[in-house]
Amino acid sequence: MTYLSLLAMAAAIPALLAFPTESNPLEVREDPTPTLGDYTGQKSQYEDGSGTYVRSDDSYTYRPSGDYCWTDTFFVTKEDVAQAWTKADTEVDCATTQSCSTSSINSTNACITWTFDNHLDVSMTWIKDVLSVGYSVGFSYSDQRCYSSTSSNTCTWDDKACHATWTSNVNYKVSGYIRRRCNYVTGAKEQTIWSHDYTTIVPALKTRLGCGASCSDTSYPAEIPPV
Fold first, then answer.
1. What gap in Å lies between CA 26 and CA 72, rounded to an integer?
2. Helix and strand numbers, DSSP H then E, in the chain
3. Signal peptide: which range, if any (predicted)?
4. How far, in Å, are 63, 76, 92, 159 from residue 101 at the CA level?
5. What pLDDT digit, counting tens, does each position of 119-130 carry?
6. Which of 124, 127, 209, 226 is deepest in the core (most CB within 10 A)?
7. pTM for this one?
8. What is the per-residue pLDDT across 105-153, written as a single tens digit (0 to 9) for each?
């Protein structure tokens, strides 16, 4: 190997080990924030460190600097949100049946939503951890994204009319923020470099059952019940 070849190799080594930058894609080895995303330049509406700590993700050590960064999730608020009445598939014509009642009714499927980057597929593990802190119900959910809720009561009528059942779901609305923390080897030590708000809406696994509609009703004849 020639002297010039050795010089070329020596010059290439610092470039390959350089701190990752968007301006030079060859320096980027992997995505440092694959779980929750990168929100550089953003700041949460919530005070840094407020709320309840949930978990940390996307830890990453940059080379050759040794700077270490990670993303914390915090839960701040929760709200039960009542959904509009939706007609179920069950109709009972009491003029043609001896059993003028229903068993438990399942609502139509409702799916989990969140306000992170639309291209980001947030894991169910993260969602269940947030629910466990906000509602203590994370353990009730599997790894699927959509659920059919079950009514906790039944309908019974004592006439000869035709009756339709309706359901009103409840959603768990959980809000908080994530923040990116970095511990720098030189200069400023541990600090928050960005933060980003999130809202996650998860269907509760129970629904409310409405027994007051006739088969011909196109809307439910009562207000949405409070949560």
1. 28
2. 2, 9
3. 1-18
4. 68, 43, 7, 11
5. 567 889 999 999
6. 209
7. 0.77
8. 888 788 988 887 655 678 899 999 999 999 988 888 988 889 888 887 8
Report the distance separating Cα 30 and Cα 19, nearest Å.
12
**What pLDDT does residue 29 have?**
54
Grade residue 91 by pLDDT with cuts at 50, 70 and 90: very high
- Which two structure tokens, joined as six digits, stand for 177? 């923020």
> Distance from CA of residue 180 to its chain's centroid?
18
What are the DSSP calls for 32-86, one per residue? S-TTT---TT---SSPTT-SEEEEEEEEEE-TTT--EEEEEEEEEEEEEEEPPPE
Phi, psi of 15 (to 5 degrees): -65, -40
* Res. 31: pLDDT tops 70: yes
CB 12 within 8 A of CB 164: no
